[in-house]
Amino acid sequence: MYTSHEDIGYDFEDDAKDKERRKPHPDIDGGWAWVIVLSSFFVHVLIMGSQMALGVLNLEWLEEFHQSRGLTAWVSSLSMGITLIVGPFIGLFINTCGCRWTAIIGGVVNALGWVLSAYAANVHYLFFTFGVVAGFGSGMAYLPAVVMVSRYFQKRRALAQGLSTTGTGFGTFLMTVLLKSLCAEHGWRNAMFIQGAVSLNLCVCGALLRPLAAGPARGEPAGKGAPAPQARSPGSVRSAGQEEPDSAAANEAALGDVQAPESEGQARPRRDMRALRALKTMSQLTLRVKEGCGDWYAGYFGTASLFTNRMFLAFVFWALFAYSSFVIPFIHLPEIVRLYRLSEQNDAFPLTSIIAIMHIFGKVILGIVADLPCIRVWDVFLVANFSLVTSILVLPLMHTYAGLAVVCALIGFSSGYFSLMPVVTEDLVGIEHLANAYGIIICANGISALLGPPFAGWIYDITQKYDFSFYISGLLYMVGILFLLVQLCLRLMAQSRKKQVAGAHV
Most buried among 85, 86, 110, 183, by the most CB within 10 A? Predict the structure, then answer.
């Protein structure tokens, strides 16, 4: 399958040849790899952290536009949902442009969405500027950051992904404080304008996503590998033995055609040379786009076997309800606190910040526990899920700040299982289908994030309480967990029967 020497797009694993090529590379599991982790960490801070802090802005929008809670919640949920839903489609940009440029463009688009939202005249305007534009930009910057961490790590991939995703917790804590102070000092419109400027740092993070250099990977010293035009043409790697020599010969012939008349005093205009170079660049770009689109189509529509895997379908069903139970508290907790008249205590230490801090500890501790040889990752994953759904169902029963703080701490810690999702996905579909399968899973999570907060707002508009929102979302989440658990038990029973049959034959 075609892959550029820059990156392979939406893949967490490479084919055998690519692995062999990359093994001697000095940056694998070290060197620049830790800069990639740092860049991905700040991407999580700026994107996921700011999205989890949108409850602050949700309050401002409710007061400014006087719309229903269900309608206003669509702004935040659109941004969160689109960031994840577009994941499989961002793979097309990554295959064509590479991770670095996809992330840089995403940073610009995200910042543009924040700035345009500062001029919103109504909620429907925010649907497009913040929900669609900023959300799409977030997706363009987020996915390359996850992909590049996986490309630079093999032995310590889980640790690297866990460290980078802790940026979500740090970002939630920092962005909540930042947005609250900006809204208090300058108003929500200026706060969004300033946040747009802050989001431009995504371009810096994207620039740090340096592609795995082709020269050192092949044992060639830097600067002595392929000619410059080849280095700028990742799309020609697959046919390097055929097309590139021809291209080089064509360049020499073209240069000879240009230089010969110059020696005779009949120099051609320089625009002929520029036109030749532009034509070659366009042909290379066209080839790259064509092959990138072909790989994207083959990757997502050529793996129908994923949808014949009942365990994987159960996992997708679980993902449709899981993420909303984590997102709903972030969006609606600020208003719940105000309804319970606990704003003074919450201002001292916001409940969303408690979730964020415990989310960090949860990812690290659950990751360490899952790596223990005597414990299966599925056990940790399911226990964390049951703990999270229990917290969601208990939260409406708490009406004091202390009670809410304890439940929020449990929500944050339990949600640390997100760092285990690539591992359990690989266990379901195998390493060869991991990239496509994980893309479908986060897309399902995006649908969950898209529909969850508006659903909670609509329930409040009908009942004048948030209690039923948590009960219904928690029960749906429980159904997803039980469905996943049943399929897992059936899978274990089938594996046990196969072992018994194999033992009998022996």
Answer: 110
